Amino acid sequence: MTHEFSLAHLTTLSCTPPELVDIAARAGYDYVSIRMTPVTAEEEHYQLVTDRKLMKETKARLADTGILVLDVELIRLDPLTEPESCLGFLEAGAELGAKGVIAQLPDPDRKRATDRFARLCDLAAPFNLTINLEFPSWTQTPDLKAAVDVLRAVDKDNAGVLVDTLHFDRSRSSLELLRQLPGSWFNFIHLCDAPAKHPDSVEGVIHTARADRYYPGEGGIDIKQILDSVPTVPFSLEIPNDRRIKRYGRLEYARRALEASRRFFADRDNCHNDQKSRILMAVNQ
C-alpha cells in the first residue's frame, strides 16, 4: 500500500516556511504542514497572513518543488478569540493551497467553544478548507470523547477530528469509540511514537509533545491498533526531538523520520499479509 507523508512544521520548527518546503522536497515528502501562528511566546512567528514577501517566496518554493500543503495551523479558540478574527488566517491557508486547518478549543465554556467551532467551519467552507479538531490532553478538549461531542453537536460537512497518536495515547482515549466514527471525519493523522510510561506531570506531557517524540515503532504507543481503527489518510510526521535535531541537523533528521515511518508501514503491511495468508491456509485445510 502506498502512503502519503507530510513534514509537520513542529518537527523542524526553526525552519521558515520556504526552508520547510525545501527540506520536505529534498527528504522525499509529499506535503508540508505549516505553522502560521505561534503556540508559545518563545516560538518564531512566521507571519504568512500579513507578510506578502514571505507568502510569495513560500508559494514559489511550493511551485518549484511540487510539494503541496496538507494543512496549516493553529487556530486556538480560547475565551478571548472569536472565529471571525481568523478570516485572514483562512484566506492565507487557501492561498497556499492547504487542504485543512488544525484547531483547538482551550475554552472551559463548552457551549461557547462548540458554537465558535461551528462558526469557524462555516467561515472555512467557502475556501474548501476542513477544520480538524485536535485534543491535546492538557486542553479543555482533553480526549477523543470531548472532540467527538463537539463534532456531533456542530454537524458540519467540513468538520474533522485530528488524531495525533501521542495525544490519543496520553489522553487514554478509547479505541472502541475511534472505530465507531465516520470515515469522513478523518482527513490526516499526526504520526509519532513516545515512551510507554506517561509523564507524571502536565509539564512532562508537554515537554514530550514539543521536544522528545520518537519515530514510529521506537516507543510504547500502540500505533498499529490506532491506525487499524481509522481509514487510510495522509500522515503528517509531527516528531520533534531536540536531541536528534542537534545531532543530525534538520534535513537529515527529517529524512530519517520519513525513512523510519516508511519502514514501520512496510513491517505493518507485511504483518497484515502474513495474517491473511495464515487465515487462508486454515480455511483451505
TrEMBL record:
<protein>
    <submittedName>
        <fullName>Sugar phosphate isomerase/epimerase</fullName>
    </submittedName>
</protein>
<feature type="domain" description="Xylose isomerase-like TIM barrel">
    <location>
        <begin position="21"/>
        <end position="262"/>
    </location>
</feature>
<dbReference type="InterPro" id="IPR013022">
    <property type="entry name" value="Xyl_isomerase-like_TIM-brl"/>
</dbReference>
<dbReference type="Pfam" id="PF01261">
    <property type="entry name" value="AP_endonuc_2"/>
</dbReference>
<dbReference type="InterPro" id="IPR050312">
    <property type="entry name" value="IolE/XylAMocC-like"/>
</dbReference>
<dbReference type="GO" id="GO:0016853">
    <property type="term" value="F:isomerase activity"/>
</dbReference>
<keyword id="KW-0413">Isomerase</keyword>
<dbReference type="InterPro" id="IPR036237">
    <property type="entry name" value="Xyl_isomerase-like_sf"/>
</dbReference>
